[in-house]
Design brief:
It is built from seven helices and seven strands, in the order αββαβαβαβαββαα. By secondary structure, it is an alpha/beta fold. Strands 1, 2, 3, 4, 5, 6 and 7 form a seven-stranded mixed β-sheet that branches. α3 links the parallel β3 and β4.
């Protein structure tokens, strides 16, 4: 455990959908969706991950199984709140289906998973987050979206032991769980 190995390290996790300024020291290290393009940052690819379409068995019993992508236009769709999409990397619904209109919009991936599991409709969910969940059914499994998480920190912190410790810890945890992020893993 990171805290046991570095007892003087203060860890604050802030899982909010907004950008932090590493230059202004709002955070020492950030995990970002997509590679940051500007700034005096050190970046490291943390992992690639995939997303797929899922629904609950209850929803599919009620609404039917879509056979092709255009069938989604006749289903209840679950996705992000458009005005709260803070990164272009999160706007993947239009990649799956131009004209995607979420009937239910939620600001977090966890919220979307729970709404889909409760039978609210079909959503594009992170495969690693739904691994092992029997309450979600993968649909149209030929449709996959690939993204990457990156760790980033200001270049002035490149030699800071605390930042390197956290970056290395994150890399190690992802490596230990690499099967969750594998593209060859079966969805669901």
């Amino acid at each position: 455990m990171l805290a046991a190995e570095f007892p003087n390290l203060s860890i604050e996790l802030v899982p909010v959908p907004r950008s932090f300024s590493l230059a202004e020291r709002e955070a020492d290290i950030a995990i970002m969706v997509g590679r940051p393009g500007t700034g005096r940052l050190r970046v490291r690819r943390l992992t690639d991950y995939t997303l797929g379409l899922y629904a609950s068995s209850g929803y599919l019993t009620r609404a039917g199984m879509p056979g092709e992508i255009d069938d989604l236009l006749h289903h209840d769709l679950v996705g992000y709140v458009d005005d709260l999409i803070y990164s272009p990397e999160l706007n993947y619904a239009v990649e799956v289906l131009p004209g995607w209109r979420s009937r239910i919009g939620l600001a977090t991936a966890v919220g979307q998973i729970e709404a889909v599991a409760a039978g609210a409709g079909i959503g594009i969910l992170h495969d690693f987050m739904v691994a092992g969940r029997n309450d979600l059914v993968p649909i149209l499994t030929n449709i996959r979206i690939k993204r990457a998480y990156w760790t980033a920190w200001h270049e002035n912190l490149r030699t800071a032991r605390r930042v390197q410790a956290v970056a290395n810890f994150l890399q190690h945890v992802v490596w230990e769980n690499r099967e969750l992020f594998s593209e060859t893993r079966q969805p669901g």
